[in-house]
Amino acid sequence: MSDLSHIRNFSIIAHIDHGKSTLADRFIQICGGLADREMEAQVLDSMDLERERGITIKAHSVTLYYKANDGKTYQLNFIDTPGHVDFTYEVSRSLAACEGALLVVDAGQGVEAQSVANCYTAIEQGLEVMPVLNKMDLPQADPDKVKAEIEHIIGIDASDAVPCSAKSGMGVEDVLQRLVQTIPAPEGEIDAPLQALIIDSWFDNYLGVVSLVRVRHGRVKKGDKILVKSTGKVHQVDSVGVFSPKHTVTVDLKAGEVGFIIAGIKEILGAPVGDTLTLSSTPDVPMLPGFQRIKPQVFAGLFPVSSDDFEDFRDALQKLTLNDAALQYEPESSDALGFGFRIGFLGMLHMEIIQERLEREYDLDLITTAPTVIYEVVLKNGDVVHVDNPSKLPDVSSIDEMREPIVQANILVPQDHLGNVITLCIERRGVQRDMQFLGSQVQVRYDLPMSEVVLDFFDRLKSVSRGYASLDYSFDRFQAANLVRLDVLINGDKVDALALIVHRDNAHYKGRVLTEKMKELIPRQMFDVAIQAAIGGQIVARTTVKALRKNVLAKCYGGDVSRKRKLLEKQKAGKKRMKQVGNVEIPQDAFLAVLKVDG
Ligand SMILES: Nc1nc2c(ncn2[C@@H]2O[C@H](COP(=O)(O)OP(=O)(O)OP(=O)(O)O)[C@@H](O)[C@H]2O)c(=O)[nH]1
């Protein structure tokens, strides 16, 4: 038997902002992973973008050594998980590498829907879940109420939940003590053939592909020849190690441990997340149960503003896909926007993050079209097709039935705001399935069309409940609905990239609001621009952007050269995110005007 009794692999499950990163930083401090002066604010959120937005996007890991009261030194492998509803899939793959999870709940806020969903995933995967009450320093902390909520809503014993304040450090040692007692050590055989699960892979410009793995059995070291089970390819290991939290090379990685492997894999899809690694000498080692293929829920076309950037755009997407298994794309060509890609995202936040990363890290100027969900269309000839692009919807005369995706939404909300939440769900064509009163909170379940949820439902829910309601949802089924395509015409020409699929009952209203919004967003040109919305051949709304009378330079009276230059530069910068469609320049905002159409 291998002795793995000193290892603890764990994740933290927490609703966004309940203090997961702050707590992790405390762990690092206590275990001496970084000297204080090296301690950047929240080292775990390493991407700039993450830090700016204050959310954790990628799963990371940290290996720490903790000397417990029993005199023993434990190796703690902490695998970070994101908290936002768009990134649930990353949580399940991080949990697959752990024996336990800390459920961190803000003692002032109480349990939120996202933590409930993630806790269930952990329990299903057989993990030990240990509740921790954070933010105990705040005057509004109410540990008894929150313990009762954990028991009522999640159904686990919270009687000895550990109170702490990640901010002040109070109780954090107790959390670590309890962790080593409560969370079981991993099981595995060091002498068995190598079997390791890829939890995450990313592309590093200097090192090539770096994979974060959980070793189930065996050991792996520099010089070993590893076999990637799904591709059948063999690579020689350049280095293995752990993040402590700095990248630290070690002699080997053994059963039970979590760390990185670098094996000179240059091919971007050479080490897929969820895959199994073994040694080339033991090719018969079975695959570990992989992760579910993640299905994107929101699709949008992305097009380079300058068609010269198309190849760079393709390269950038290839690189991003390695870091982000959820990102899926295929080439798309649009009459209006030229060549680009149709990209599938987990949700709107994911879409914004990818667009920002493409623009910032890869210096691309892109136009994003209105996001849509995927529809199931039954044709008269019996074929069933899936449509993720409204402009590709087959001709109405050939369609027998259109089906839209329905999600099951689970909402937790304090009783005071229940009425508003129900009103919102009804507006969004929701059907109530269940309602339970759990202490001061109410749990309501709704079936809602996915198209009504993915765009702005989360923001609306927060605003009608003063920030208190929380949401978790998952795809359930396709269901027949009376859907139509709403086309947008600019000066009489149908613009494929602006088409939408909407419910017939809302189509007129949406068409009106959309054309009004677009009128505000399309700059005045030298001629009138007519914006129309149409269903089939029928125009349902129309607005006009009146022609511009004066030239911007006319204001400058000829004399002031620097002012003239400034104005021209300003115009040029403004142009970056514009696309010439026919003879009209349409800015990015106008393509996303649908996001501003409520209801
Ligand atoms: N008063 C108080 N504030 C805390 C405590 N722990 C965290 N915070 C604050 O709560 C906010 C959110 O903390 P984070 O650690 O970033 O939360 P998170 O759960 O990691 O959030 P994501 O990484 O976005 O999922 C920050 O402003 C912290 O300073 C605590 O114990 N007490």
UniProtKB/TrEMBL annotation:
<feature type="domain" description="Tr-type G">
    <location>
        <begin position="5"/>
        <end position="187"/>
    </location>
</feature>
<dbReference type="Pfam" id="PF00009">
    <property type="entry name" value="GTP_EFTU"/>
</dbReference>
<keyword id="KW-0472">Membrane</keyword>
<dbReference type="Pfam" id="PF06421">
    <property type="entry name" value="LepA_C"/>
</dbReference>
<keyword id="KW-0251">Elongation factor</keyword>
<keyword id="KW-0342">GTP-binding</keyword>
<feature type="binding site">
    <location>
        <begin position="17"/>
        <end position="22"/>
    </location>
    <ligand>
        <name>GTP</name>
    </ligand>
</feature>
<comment type="similarity">
    <text>Belongs to the TRAFAC class translation factor GTPase superfamily. Classic translation factor GTPase family. LepA subfamily.</text>
</comment>
<dbReference type="Pfam" id="PF03144">
    <property type="entry name" value="GTP_EFTU_D2"/>
</dbReference>
<dbReference type="InterPro" id="IPR006297">
    <property type="entry name" value="EF-4"/>
</dbReference>
<dbReference type="InterPro" id="IPR038363">
    <property type="entry name" value="LepA_C_sf"/>
</dbReference>
<dbReference type="Pfam" id="PF00679">
    <property type="entry name" value="EFG_C"/>
</dbReference>
<dbReference type="GO" id="GO:0003746">
    <property type="term" value="F:translation elongation factor activity"/>
</dbReference>
<keyword id="KW-0378">Hydrolase</keyword>
<dbReference type="InterPro" id="IPR004161">
    <property type="entry name" value="EFTu-like_2"/>
</dbReference>
<dbReference type="InterPro" id="IPR005225">
    <property type="entry name" value="Small_GTP-bd"/>
</dbReference>
<comment type="function">
    <text>Required for accurate and efficient protein synthesis under certain stress conditions. May act as a fidelity factor of the translation reaction, by catalyzing a one-codon backward translocation of tRNAs on improperly translocated ribosomes. Back-translocation proceeds from a post-translocation (POST) complex to a pre-translocation (PRE) complex, thus giving elongation factor G a second chance to translocate the tRNAs correctly. Binds to ribosomes in a GTP-dependent manner.</text>
</comment>
<keyword id="KW-0648">Protein biosynthesis</keyword>
<dbReference type="GO" id="GO:0016787">
    <property type="term" value="F:hydrolase activity"/>
</dbReference>
<dbReference type="InterPro" id="IPR027417">
    <property type="entry name" value="P-loop_NTPase"/>
</dbReference>
<feature type="binding site">
    <location>
        <begin position="134"/>
        <end position="137"/>
    </location>
    <ligand>
        <name>GTP</name>
    </ligand>
</feature>
<dbReference type="InterPro" id="IPR000640">
    <property type="entry name" value="EFG_V-like"/>
</dbReference>
<dbReference type="InterPro" id="IPR035647">
    <property type="entry name" value="EFG_III/V"/>
</dbReference>
<dbReference type="InterPro" id="IPR013842">
    <property type="entry name" value="LepA_CTD"/>
</dbReference>
<keyword id="KW-0547">Nucleotide-binding</keyword>
<keyword id="KW-1003">Cell membrane</keyword>
<dbReference type="InterPro" id="IPR000795">
    <property type="entry name" value="T_Tr_GTP-bd_dom"/>
</dbReference>
<dbReference type="InterPro" id="IPR035654">
    <property type="entry name" value="LepA_IV"/>
</dbReference>
<protein>
    <recommendedName>
        <fullName>Elongation factor 4</fullName>
        <ecNumber>3.6.5.n1</ecNumber>
    </recommendedName>
</protein>
